[in-house]
Write a sequence for this structure.
């Protein structure tokens, strides 16, 4: 239910909410494959390491991903080889996976572009990860864009990028997002009704929306 509530908001609004709580979440350098991409759901985490000798596999974890989950792949930011291609895109879309987030690159992007399957990554590159990287961990915490993501944390992606919401504060984040959204809509309504931007922002505390609450 919380994922459904958070899906109503933008990553920008969620980022402000996390700022207020003093929690990280914005995945630096991870961008959508196309601007219309949007994904929201709990994380299914996979970590890659440099392939050993003999090399391991790039993994068949997708069989264990539930509909609505977001696949989160930690390839240590590598851009010289990919860990996601057209077979995975086709299967994930068919099985109702919400999207894929990669700290690394993807390939065979034409299928994702053609079907609208949401992918967020550091870019695109055609070279395979087979015999270059191998799966190290599935379902354990990973790091993507400088942020730790645990299995079950909520991932939200839109045209601005991706943000991770720790599952234990997801309800609180949703409540703050609703407040921020309401106040920003009020600012816009006042400006469109003739108020100056400065007056409207001041009247609704716009510059304080993301500020961490202080006590005392």
């Amino acid at each position: 239910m919380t994922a459904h509530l958070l899906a109503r908001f933008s990553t920008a609004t969620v980022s402000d909410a996390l700022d207020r709580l003093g929690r990280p979440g914005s995945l630096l350098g991870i961008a959508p494959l196309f601007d219309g991409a949007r994904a929201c759901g709990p994380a299914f985490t996979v970590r890659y390491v440099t392939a050993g000798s003999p090399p391991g596999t790039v993994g068949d974890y997708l069989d264990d991903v539930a509909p609505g989950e977001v696949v989160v792949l930690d390839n240590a930011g590598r851009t010289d080889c990919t860990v996601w291609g057209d077979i995975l895109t086709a299967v994930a879309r068919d099985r109702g996976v919400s999207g894929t987030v990669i700290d690394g690159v993807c390939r065979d992007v034409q299928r994702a572009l053609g079907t609208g399957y949401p992918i967020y990554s550091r870019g695109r590159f055609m070279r395979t990860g087979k015999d270059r990287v191998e799966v190290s961990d599935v379902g354990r915490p990973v790091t993507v864009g400088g942020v730790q993501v645990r299995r079950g944390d909520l991932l939200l992606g839109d045209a601005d990028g991706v943000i991770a919401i720790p599952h234990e504060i997801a309800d609180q984040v949703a409540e703050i997002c609703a407040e921020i959204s309401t106040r920003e809509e009020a600012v816009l309504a006042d400006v469109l009704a003739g108020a100056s931007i400065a007056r409207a922002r001041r009247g609704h505390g716009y510059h304080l929306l993301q500020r961490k609450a202080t006590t005392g």
Q: What stands out?
A: The chain has two domains: 1-23+166-216, 26-164. Helices lie at 2-6, 11-21, 86-94, 109-115, 170-192, 197-203. The two ends are 35 Å apart (CA to CA). The mean pLDDT is 92.
